[in-house]
Write a structure and sequence with these properties.
binds 4-nitrophenyl phosphate; about 150 residues; globular; alpha/beta
Length: about 150
């Protein structure tokens, strides 16, 4: 069985492309399919933010081929697990859910490392480069737990 995982943020150019790239680097693509999307339509077709590309490259991960796309209700059909980067993204996705089964697929990604704390991956878009290093480290830890949990499915 291939598990399908979707990472979601607002723009799909900063946080979720990193989450996608980091998780992809840790799994066998035959077993785990990973994609990302944004709740907004701001950056459809765009490459990841250069600062996300740079921090990924620092850790030998190439995310340059990714292009922004918007989350749609079809993603509930196409994915098993949907990870929101922050509470705003989470509620936006939940509002689009058509059923309890849809809702059950949606999780806040940092609850993987801080259960029930409902922490946000801070939006680094308007911040400096240190914001991206911080985001990378959070996502690296969270994706370790995702890999471990998926291996138990
Ligand atoms: P992301 O960051 O949600 O991590 O991709 C953002 C990127 C762009 C904007 C906001 C957040 N924006 O407003 O354009």
């Amino acid at each position: 069985m291939q598990v399908k995982v979707l990472m979601v943020c607002l723009g799909n150019i900063c946080r979720s492309p990193l989450a996608e790239g980091i998780l992809k680097s840790k799994v066998n693509p035959e077993n785990v399919f990973v994609d990302s999307a944004g709740t907004s339509n701001y950056h459809i077709g765009s490459k990841p933010d250069p600062r996300s590309i740079e921090i990924a490259a620092k850790y030998n991960i190439d995310i340059t081929d990714q292009r922004g796309r918007q989350f749609t209700q079809k993603d509930f059909d196409d994915f098993d697990l949907i990870f929101a980067m922050d509470n705003s993204n989470y509620f936006n996705i939940i509002q689009q859910a058509r059923s309890e089964a849809d809702r059950a697929k949606v999780h806040l990604i940092l609850n993987k490392i801080a259960p029930d704390e409902n922490m946000d991956v801070p939006d680094p878009y308007y911040g400096g480069a240190t914001g991206f290093e911080n985001v990378y480290k959070m996502l690296d830890k969270a994706t370790d737990v995702i890999v471990r949990d998926i291996s138990k499915l």
